[in-house]
């Protein structure tokens, strides 16, 4: 098991890697200082100039970038090249309706495709494979990210996008799909539907799954592997940093290899913001070394992980990150979509609520994430007619679908019935067992 | 001629209706008529009481979502076809009844029916023109 897409970079010694990293880091710092006013100002506030970054250890002096910074500079404030150099945009969901926008140059897309090709190779993919890509196509980075990586690999891509399960299963059989790429919860749903339809696994040629965009567990992996007769790999990425292809599990499933020639990872204590040693859990932070359009300096992902430096049995030298075990903020990932409780709040404000009280209850039913939003019904929203309340539920559901991009069940509840602790409301109950 | 109805939002869970009646009882408020409309998740309790303003106030203070709505109470002769003739009058002028419920009284031989319509004034006018007796709020509260 030692197929590499880019053996040179993936297996180079850590010394060589460090050499590449410092060279690229210096160039990056110079670049953002010159072309992004936001970063220049952030550096100046810390009394830093690009010349102060001499070794990789100096990284810790650089300012952090947060999701809030990305929102505040909407839409193009952090782009490091003129708009005309940007050949594609992607966007992720934001907290108040405004998305976070990222831009890619031609070179960025080239690197991205290459990194995803590394990932697919790690999952055993070659040009002989048929990759069924059931990640959503569109502004979401999942769909197009996997798409161009599979093309780069030379595999046959089936760009089916998400949903339409019956068609997914039909094509999977008829096209002889060998690699399935989608969210783990959708994979589980597909697996259950395949079994429910009485399809024998021998009719399928599936061998591997490339699953990501939401947290999942080894327990779920075991189920997916058994139900689909595959080996299931975790792929990690986030649009602020790249999209899928930042890190990937090799066949040893011993953590996800972070492509360190393109990204420098750190683990910090989210409270003190101090870097933590290898093996300790904390917030994952990324600096992009090669991105031109939308580079980030020490971007705080809010994802909780730990880093391990030991060389992997697969021969790769890149650091391994533990699969994501949680978040430092209140963001939820539901069916692969980022959901912030404050988005629900903004919808309720639109409905005339001055102080909305609500609770998100997330569960996993039949392997699909299920979101119920309990809303305390105020006198302002109340109607003495059943039809009036049903219309209210429907309008809330439609508005939430358009803001979040996912459907939710609305449940109206009585005032003061939702839990509150010390005046601060509890907003989320996550019952999913990953 | 209008009657004030109290509407209360209730989740479908144990003890909520009991809590409403408890609050009313503690405040010496008497229920004259009641109806519940419900779905699988929630219900709307509609009440005619002897002291609607006070009922609204105390239920609100007890933390319920409550509103007041103007409805119409009419006397229906206690014989076959009594309700039908009243509904026909409203139907003829295109007034749609959102909901209605009946009242049982001790003092009259007629039945009382409570109507909820959008066009309250128009409905009152049509019914009066057709000789239907509208029972005013003050009278209903004291039944």
UniProtKB/TrEMBL annotation, chain A:
Q: Which reaction does it catalyse?
A: 2-phenylacetate + ATP + CoA = phenylacetyl-CoA + AMP + diphosphate
Keyword Nucleotide-binding tagged: yes
Keywords assigned? Ligase, Nucleotide-binding
Q: Which EC class does it fall in?
A: ligase
Q: Name one GO molecular function term.
A: phenylacetate-CoA ligase activity
Pathway listed for it? Aromatic compound metabolism; phenylacetate degradation
Q: In terms of domain of life, where is this protein from?
A: Bacteria
UniProt cross-references to Pfam families, sorted A to Z: AMP-binding, AMP-binding_C_2
- For this protein, the Enzyme Commission number is 6.2.1.30
Q: Mind listing the GO biological process terms from this record?
A: phenylacetate catabolic process
Limits of the AMP-dependent synthetase/ligase domain: 88-286
Q: Which residues form the AMP-dependent ligase C-terminal domain?
A: 336-432
Q: Does the keyword ATP-binding apply?
A: no
**InterPro entries to which the protein is assigned, alphabetical:** Adenylate-forming_Reductase (IPR051414), AMP-bd_C_sf (IPR045851), AMP-dep_Lig_C (IPR028154), AMP-dep_synth/lig_dom (IPR000873), ANL_N_sf (IPR042099), PA_CoA_ligase (IPR011880)
Please give the function described in this protein's UniProt entry.
Catalyzes the activation of phenylacetic acid (PA) to phenylacetyl-CoA (PA-CoA).
Which proteins does it associate with, and in what oligomeric form?
A: Monomer.
Q: Per the similarity annotation, which family is this?
A: Belongs to the phenylacetyl-CoA ligase family.
Q: Provide the protein name.
A: Phenylacetate-coenzyme A ligase
Automatic annotation (TrEMBL), chain B:
Instruction: Give the ACT domain ranges.
Output: 5-79
Q: Which InterPro entries match?
A: ACT-like_dom_sf (IPR045865), ACT_dom (IPR002912), ACT_dom_pair (IPR045739)
> Cross-referenced SUPFAM superfamilies, in alphabetical order?
ACT-like
- Name the domain of life: Bacteria
- Protein name, please? ACT domain protein
Q: What is the lineage of its organism?
A: Bacteria, Bacillati, Bacillota, Clostridia, Eubacteriales
